[in-house]
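Input/output pair, single chain:
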Amino acid sequence: MRSHFIQPCADQWEEVAKKVGTADWQGAKHLSDRMFTDQFQDWEGVIYLEDKGDLLGFCSIVKKDIVDTDLYTPYIAVVYVFPVYRGQFLTQHLMHRAEEELKKIGFDEVFLVTPLKNFYEKLDYQAIDQMHDHLDRLLTVYKKIFDNEK
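Output:
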């Protein structure tokens, strides 16, 4: 298994966007659409895990997520592992790789918006806020401060 960080200029951008779009989740379809319509800017990109050409999971690192606020940035967003690969701690791999990329860019903290409870806390994320998204769902905003280690 290998993890990759890609941005729109990468040769495999469209291929990964197509594979992301095959996931049975509306968030994945939204990410795939964003990838195809050049909605990534600056340092934003996609982290993905693959094994022998199969896409196992993915997430994005972005300036804004599904809540309408300028209070928080950057975000790890659209975290997804295909059902057949769940239970193998792949979400941890995705999150750690995304955190490493954000540290390289110069960030010392990251945010995450999710309806999940008692999941990201295991990865040292702390609930800091609750906000409604554009579908009026009440979601929790989580924050993680990176250690000084780079």
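The chain has a mean pLDDT of 96. Residues 90-105 form the longest helix (16 residues).
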